[in-house]
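Marked as duplicate of an earlier ticket. Keeping the data here for the record.
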Amino acid sequence: MNSIHPNAALALNARDRSRIETRRRLLETGLELFARQGVADTRASDVATAAGVAVGTLYLHFKDKQGLLRAIMREGVEELMGALQRMALSPAPDPAAAVRAHTEVLVRFAESHTGLCRILFDPESVRKNVSTEITEHLAAMLELRVREGIADGIIVPGIDPVVAAHGVVGMLLQVLDWWTRNPGIATADSVIETLTRLRLSGPYQGSEA
């Protein structure tokens, strides 16, 4: 039976660690440069140089700049979805509290991930449909909640779940984009309060924030 020499195993582990560290460095550097310079004005070679690797190394990990961009956004979305799923594990006592909790998760995430938000709404991200993938994912989650609300009699009849979900997500993302670019205009608490009241003012029956 063949066995791997301990030194060879250590070398493999070292290579794995180096590969993981390089990938992490490229992701962090890409996020910083895309947010600061804009996606269109940031070249793959810029990211590689700032990360201290050859541009060929970036291509080995992400194929091209768009691959890096999508990987950055995917990680951000996974973190956000994790926060929303944790929120769902502790159901709110009523619809108003549920809407407020959902809104707070999104606002707090945007507050602590301003660079990611800049990339999400970057014109190049929109043109390449990177933003579309994320908004569709958020809308699909909200659509399910709307359908459940209609079935439970919480949401008024006649509301189209698909239209409602995209409408709410569009409003939320538009406000968060504006707010993260102009953080001094309003506090996070006031953004949460206002968005919560706007969300509750239409589809929910007899609910007040």
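See parent ticket for discussion. The CA atoms of residues 16 and 28 lie 18 Å apart.
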